[in-house]
Design brief:
- By secondary structure, this protein is an all-alpha fold.
- The protein has two domains: 100 residues, no CATH class; 101 residues, no CATH class.
- 78% of the residues lie in helices and 0% in strands.
- The longest helix is centred in the middle third of the chain and has 33 residues.
- The radius of gyration is 21 Å and the shape is flat.
Amino acid sequence: MKKICIGVLIFISFGISVYLIGTNTALEETKYGAVEVILFSMPFTMILVNSTLFFLPTLLRSNELYARYKKGLENIFLSLSLILMILHLGLILLVTGTDINLMLLIPICVGIVLITTANTLPRFQVEISPTSSEFTQSTYHAWNIIVRPFSLPLYMGGSIMLFCVFLPGSLLLIGFFSILFCTLLVAFYFSYRAYQTHLTN
């Protein structure tokens, strides 16, 4: 289903660009490059990025490994496609003469990345083999302990970050970096506390 959504996003991005070129819509040159480049750079980037998803089963050479992480990987690629689509729409608004502040896209894109990361990380629990070295087992065990406490602040911070678009222009970046810093600080603190609690039990 997620692959279908990715395909739809790519189709829509190309469709909008082809429509604007084909209907001779009045388009304006911008400082970001020629109109044709702006209209088709993001759709082609979406194809290049998502082509990896379709070749992953071959690259991993393990259907079992791919099946285990399939949902998490598809979530990541879907979020990347959504971010590229948002950037594409922002650039289209520019070339069609709509005055838009591209800085507003920063908290939206980073917020989506944080939310997707928070939803995806818990899926990457590592199986600990009894034949592995003691160092490897302890490393994998530590990862399995901290991944969930680390994910929750990312989800909360990413959700709050989306509201930065409503801040005045002078406070946009201040609010964005403040939320990002606090999110990462709390995430590392939660994961550290979880690991320390595990050691004392």
